[in-house]
Design brief:
13% of the residues lie in helices and 35% in strands. The protein is built from 17 helices and 60 strands.
């Protein structure tokens, strides 16, 4: 991946970060002592690359299975290729053209895969390496590819086209054979109409020299490859969708567009041996059944001990309106119709043998749906499904936000898994997941092994807290959002205490605590908050980025009024004096008792209410701290701090009150509201809350990315409404006279201000539950250009100070058994007279980053990140050898800056922002890890660490493992003596250049792939490896038989000699 110069400027939003003169971090005067901090992170410690993709393949289009290697491949409409083995073995590949994958064919047990694309190209993939690569490509120029067939243990690929012709490709060299089956030779010469595209190709299971060709119009031809003519032609009035052989090669079944199945004897082409309509109503008068929907695919599998299986999709009656898609399993006299949640894309029957000329013994069916992958157990009564080990259900409801924690406490994951395993549905098949190929990677780093494996541990449904709106009046209050009113907008999680806090689009915040005991909550603890702003538009001074003015200290007169509003009970008045909706939350809280299973349980529900006919502002920032027992959230109206232990509201102030007398903005009065009460329609359409990202600038810019990119950047500068954009709880030194850090809350706004609120938290657990938390406002600390995205704290040596937290304890345990909570706080080293500063505040905004010394509040380092774009996501991350700021910009650049000096270490143009989904879900984590939602159903993980990049090969799993191919079925003595067994064919004599000549050069173009010569040799030799191994095995058997005969003769000679000596002794 190419690295770009920081000074390089691209057009529009794709412009690179034009840091220009401010590209390097600048050291402010008077702070030269900070040169003593030794930074270990260098640019060579960073390298950006994709690692693993998880989730369900978006818009799947095709599927294939290797029955020996036990590997499943899925192709998509965007040209992606996903390969699945055992749990934890996954791989993602991408065709450069991006065309849809229409068909996949495994070279069984050879570690290779052929893909056919909608752009009429076929590709050979080498799966013997951890990162599969294309070895060969062949691009057809004059004909469209419609169907491909690769016989088992063959190196010749049959390619059917839209014109009705069949071409043959050598998969070793990926060159066309001169042998071509033309459509006009395959059908009757008397036929004047074109038979349509080729929809099926397969060879007779018992005779490789006979090829069955299905044309769309309803004609099927049995073609003799040696004589180059048609043996039989089978004609039916309805179009064909698929064909399936009986393993003995004497019958085949066709599925048709009218919902019928026709069974043909190969030697009786005049009429079908049987015609059935599986889902058609049979008229009593003997007439033809009513037509049904097309049967898109049928498979015919035999068993040695019982009736054969006939499995099909489609074919339902037209009068079944609204019925879900179905898979039909016909076994003997029983017919089972299995309903699916989504439309069926494809299905495959998994069988015990890879040989088509033996009893198939089917044991499972893989069903690829539009949004799911289902495996059905055919061996158990009722056809239960297998429990899916892959994390394919992350899109069960649309993903709205992501947070990534790469280094959780060791006990958290087992705790989540233990409780999450109880949530799993029952009734799964008792057998193991049959897609079991590949091996796990042997990562040398713990984080790498965790990184390679991805599983859903626990699911939490927040909508259970609320009543579902039923009447129109109830729905009107929830219609202030365009999306699901229960959708989650922001997450805040403390892994150490396991306290989880979520903010929803309906202006609500829910605090959860983790418990191993089941409880029944009679009444959900509710706190209603009334946020009202009298000042609206602000005019920001032009000194953005300058040092803030005088800072007010706790307890001074600059603190705003401390008379805090109380929570409003749900029984408050629904309308104000002028008839407008007032004091009403957006969602109605559940009134019946709530049974809460072990796991995350509701501790407190906080709801913002309507104010004088205005719906509550969307929540733009959220944080929770377990050491203080506090939750802070903000919006465009102000911020609120809630004590979730005492269930009280501590702070509810407007943005202007945060500044006190030091407000640098000139605010204009809120426009008076008209006394006329608007209609319900006007109320719901006037102000819509939109589900956007954690970045507050995306909240307020009305989907700027849907417009031109240049206008979206300009809209940033025009943004005038101040919004609370970020929070950070920490212990800090607010004054030079202080020697002990005190609890505080740092607040960042969309206009670049960082402010501080000092907290007085009672020291003992008993006092904490009885005494209120004290609050005093310290005013602004520093100002930056652009909205504040992230804040963090370093100690005097430049080491990141972890957040303060309280260890987890069982909240539902009896008082006498409950452990005393252990509060973890890190104290900064004492300051000296030469350097009174012993802490550093790291502040990153959309435009720049600053490092401020504390308690002097001097800006010691400053760096302009971008001028032409803006930062979407910023995180302070811990690497193996140091601390850095990681940024993702709207122009697609990923950057890292060292701390505390803010030196640029990485700048890569990685991912242009083309989708709001990326902005909503992109997040960084420690150890060089990051992820984002690359499609509505898939998570893409990336790394920006050189160490992870170097160990990537060890982290990834092996797709191909050496496995012996099962022995071919025994032909039997009489079949071998009188014939009747499977007839082999030397295709080289028919399709080779000597016999068939060269194909036309204009027909297709060969394109060598980037897989390398070694991979080409490995795959090419592997294609016919089984045949070679079979010949060697026969030679070895003959040699062993010869040796056995020699040993037998020697033993007989020895016996004769012994007998003679015995007679002589007598």
């Amino acid at each position: 991946m190419k690295k770009f110069n920081i000074r390089k400027v691209l057009d529009g939003l794709t412009a690179a970060s034009s840091s220009s003169s401010a590209a390097a971090a600048s050291l402010q005067s008077g702070n030269r002592e900070n040169d003593l901090i030794q930074e270990t992170l260098q640019s060579e410690h960073f390298q950006l690359c994709k690692t693993v993709r998880h989730g369900f393949p978006y818009q799947p289009s095709s599927m294939a299975f290797d029955p020996v290697q036990k590997i499943l491949a899925i192709g998509t409409q965007s040209g992606a290729l996903r390969l699945f083995g055992r749990a934890g073995v996954e791989c993602f590949c991408q065709h450069e053209s991006g065309s849809a994958v229409i068909q996949l064919e495994f070279l069984v047990n050879e570690g290779a895969l052929v893909s056919a694309l909608a752009d009429d190209s076929i590709h050979l993939w080498n799966l013997r390496q951890k990162l599969p690569a294309i070895l060969h490509s062949l691009k057809f120029n004059r004909e469209r590819i419609t169907f491909c067939h690769l016989p088992f243990q063959s190196k010749w690929l049959y390619v059917g086209t839209e014109r009705g012709n069949i071409h043959i490709v050598n998969v070793e060299s990926f060159t066309l054979s001169g042998y071509v089956i033309m459509w006009n030779k395959a059908i009757e010469l008397s036929s004047k109409t074109h038979p349509g595209p080729v929809v099926h190709i397969s060879d007779n299971p018992m005779d490789e020299g006979k090829l069955l060709i299905g044309f769309e119009c309803g004609i099927v031809v049995l073609w003799d490859l040696k004589s180059k003519k048609a043996d039989y032609r089978y004609s039916y009035d309805e179009a064909i969708h698929s064909v399936a052989w009986h393993h003995e090669g004497k019958q085949f079944v066709c599925s048709h567009s009218d919902g019928t199945l026709t069974t043909w004897n190969i030697r009786a082409p005049a009429k079908p041996a049987q015609i059935i309509t599986p889902h058609g109503k049979q008229p009593k008068d003997g007439k033809k059944p009513e037509p049904c929907k097309p049967i898109l695919k049928v498979e015919y599998k035999t068993t040695r001990a019982g009736d054969p299986f006939m499995i099909l999709c489609g074919g339902l009656s037209y009068d079944t309106v609204g019925r879900r898609p179905c898979l039909t399993v016909m076994h003997g006299k029983s017919t089972a119709v299995l309903e699916m949640d989504y439309p069926i894309v494809d299905f495959l029957t998994l069988c015990e043998t890879p040989y088509p000329n033996d009893f198939q013994e089917p044991y499972a069916v893989v069903v690829l749906l539009e949004k799911d992958l289902v495996l059905i157990d055919l061996a158990q009564i009722g056809y239960p499904i297998f429990e899916n080990p892959y994390p394919l259900s992350i899109h069960e409801s649309p993903v709205t936000c992501c947070e990534y924690f790469a280094d959780c406490p060791a006990e958290v994951i087992p705790a989540l898994y233990s409780e999450g395993s109880r949530q799993k549905r029952q009734g799964f098949s008792k057998k193991e997941w049959p897609i079991s190929g590949g091996n796990w990677g042997q990562g040398t780093l713990t984080i790498l092994r965790i990184h390679a494996f991805f599983a859903v541990l626990y699911k939490l449904k927040t909508a259970k807290v609320f009543e579902k709106p039923r009447s129109k009046e109830e729905k009107s209050s929830t219609e202030i959002v365009d999306e699901d009113p229960f959708a989650i907008q922001i997450l805040s999680w403390c892994p150490e205490s396991r306290v989880l806090c979520v903010a929803g689009v309906s202006a609500h915040v829910i605090v959860y605590r983790f418990s191993k005991q089941e409880v029944t909550t009679e009444v959900v603890q509710l706190l209603e908050v009334r946020m009202q702003c009298e000042l609206n538009e602000v005019e920001s001074p032009e000194c953005g980025g300058e040092q803030a003015s005088a800072v007010s200290t706790p307890g001074t007169s600059s603190s705003p009024q401390t008379s805090l509003p109380q929570s409003h009970p749900s029984s408050s008045s629904n309308n104000s004096s002028d008839g407008l909706r007032d004091n009403v939350p957006c969602l109605k809280v559940r009134s019946s008792p709530l049974k809460q299973s072990p796991g995350y349980q509701v501790e407190l529900l906080i709801q913002l209410v309507w104010v004088s006919g205005e719906p509550p502002q969307q929540i733009t920032s959220l944080t929770v701290n377990s050491a203080y027992g506090l939750v802070a959230f903000g919006s465009g109206n102000g911020l609120a701090v809630v004590d979730y232990l005492q269930k009280t509201l501590l702070v509810n102030v407007s943005n202007a009150e945060l500044y006190g007398s030091t407000d640098p903005h000139h605010r204009q009065p809120h426009s008076p509201r008209k006394t006329r009460q608007p209609s319900a329609g006007e109320q719901t359409t006037k102000r819509k809350l939109r589900l956007l990202t954690n970045n507050h600038n995306l909240y307020a810019r009305d989907n700027s990315f849907s417009r031109s990119r240049s206008s979206s950047v300009a809209s940033i500068d025009r943004e005038s409404r101040e919004v609370i954009s970020s929070f950070y709880f920490c212990d800090w030194l607010s004054k030079k006279s202080e020697t002990v850090a005190v609890p505080s809350l740092w607040v960042g706004t969309s206009l670049g201000s960082m402010l501080a609120i000092a907290l007085t938290v009672p020291s003992t657990p008993e006092q904490r539950m009885q005494q209120p938390v004290g609050v005093s406002f310290c005013g602004p600390v520093v100002r930056l250009k652009g909205g504040i995205l992230r804040m963090a704290q370093l100690d005097a040596s430049g080491i990141l100070l972890p957040h303060v937290y309280e260890s987890w304890y069982e909240p539902n345990a009896p008082e006498e058994e409950r452990e005393q909570p252990r509060r973890h706080r890190l104290t900064s080293p004492p300051s000296s007279q030469e350097n009174p500063d012993c802490q550093y505040a790291v502040v990153c905004s959309e435009k720049q980053a600053k490092v401020v010394a504390l308690p002097s509040q001097n800006c010691v380092y400053e760096h302009n990140i971008t001028e032409t774009s803006f930062v979407l996501r910023a995180d302070v991350v811990t690497m193996t050898t140091g601390v850095a700021i990681a940024c993702f910009c709207a122009n697609g650049h990923i950057m890292t800056l060292s701390l505390p000096s803010l030196r640029p270490l990485l700048d890569v143009n990685y991912l242009p922002l083309t989708d709001m989904r990326i902005a909503r879900t992109f997040c960084f984590s420690n150890q060089g890890q990051a992820l984002y939602l690359t499609s509505p159903t898939e998570i893409q993980r990336i790394t920006y660490s050189q160490e992870t990049y170097d160990n990537l090969q060890e982290m990834l799993g092996e797709l191909f493992t050496p496995v012996e191919t099962p022995e071919a079925p025994n032909r039997g003595f009489f079949k071998g003596l009188f014939g009747g067994g499977a007839q082999s064919l030397d295709r080289e004599d028919l399709f080779g250049e000597v016999a068939a000549g060269k194909a036309s050069r204009s027909l297709a173009q060969h394109i060598p792939g980037p897989g390398g010569m070694e991979g080409m040799k490995g795959a090419a030799s592997g294609v016919v490896g089984e045949l070679a191994r079979a010949r060697i095995a026969l030679d070895e058997r003959g040699q062993k038989l010869g040796e056995l005969e020699e040993r037998t003769a020697a033993m007989m000679a020895s016996a004769d000699s012994f007998s003679k000596h015995a007679h002589d002794v007598r």
